[in-house]
Amino acid sequence: MYYRRFDAPPPDPALVRDLTRQQEEMKSQVIIQKPEFNLKLIAGCDSSFIGEDTILSVFVLLTYPALELVEKVWHHGPVTLPYIPGLLSFREAPNLLKTYELLQQKPDLIMVDGHGISHPRRLGIATHLGLHLQKPTMGVAKKVLVGQYTEPAPEKGALSPLTYKGEVIANVLRTKDKVKPVFVSPGHLLDLHTATSVALSCTLKHKLPEPTRLADHFAAVLKPEVR
């Protein structure tokens, strides 16, 4: 999670209104459905900010269900927007899309380190990417953004629904015994049941599923090279 510095100027109200309007328009295009793919390749992606001016994005491509690494690509570039709560996807998406284009093979499903529809306007970064790429996407987030839930049982595989305004927007999933759960939500062209099943099947020894864990790992490894 990224916090705006206390000495930073507030965002331009006109910019906030415009991006919020774009989110509302994009939300009407989101499709939540049982996927039609034959899942053979799954991608994971993550972004890391370096200072206030640079963003580093990483995509990894894995076989499914073996989860063997096929490709790893990354791209860094300038940050074009300030941090605005609820609008972070506009800050991350441009560089993620450039990174995606570097993949020689394209995935059947993209797992994003972040939220899908578990967002105040149902438009987290996973949904944002899914709409731009017209690919099935899902989000696996470490922290809740919005909604209420009860803590799932402590065993791996336990889950409870995350609800917001009377709608189930994610599953709170325990991916490892007695560790904090993750928040799994569909992004676009995917349903919650499939997203949850894939997240659990991609979780090996660690808390995070392998696609996003590896993307996060390589972002940390590559970060010093970009400074």
CATH homologous superfamily classification: archaeoglobus fulgidus dsm 4304 superfamily
Which architecture name does CATH use? 2-Layer Sandwich
The assigned structural class equals alpha+beta
What is the CATH class? Alpha Beta
Tell me the β content.
Answer: 25-35%
Helix content percent band = 25-40%
Largest sheet: 8 strands, mixed
Key terms:
archaeoglobus fulgidus dsm 4304 fold; 8-stranded mixed beta sheet; 8 strands; disordered N terminus
A few lines on this structure:
By secondary structure, the protein is an alpha+beta fold. It is built from five helices and eight strands; from the N terminus they run H-E-E-E-H-E-H-E-E-E-E-H-H. Helix 2 (88-100) packs across helix 3 (125-133).
Structural notes for this entry:
- The chain is an alpha+beta fold.
- It has one domain: archaeoglobus fulgidus dsm 4304 superfamily (archaeoglobus fulgidus dsm 4304 fold, 2-Layer Sandwich), CATH 3.30.2170.10.
- It is 28% helix and 26% strand.
- The protein has five helices and eight strands; from the N terminus they run αβββαβαββββαα.
- The protein has helices at 13-27, 88-100, 125-133, 192-201, 210-226; strands at residues 41-50, 54-63, 69-78, 109-113, 137-141, 159-164, 167-173, 182-188.
- An eight-stranded mixed beta sheet has the order 3-2-1-4-5-8-7-6, with helices on both faces.
- α2 (88-100) crosses α3.
- 41% of the residues are buried.
- Mean pLDDT is 93; it is low at 1-6.
How are the secondary structure elements laid out?
Elements: H1 13-27, E1 41-50, E2 54-63, E3 69-78, H2 88-100, E4 109-113, H3 125-133, E5 137-141, E6 159-164, E7 167-173, E8 182-188, H4 192-201, H5 210-226
Parallel strand pairs: 1-4, 4-5
Antiparallel strand pairs: 1-2, 2-3, 5-8, 6-7, 7-8
Helix pairs in contact: 2-3
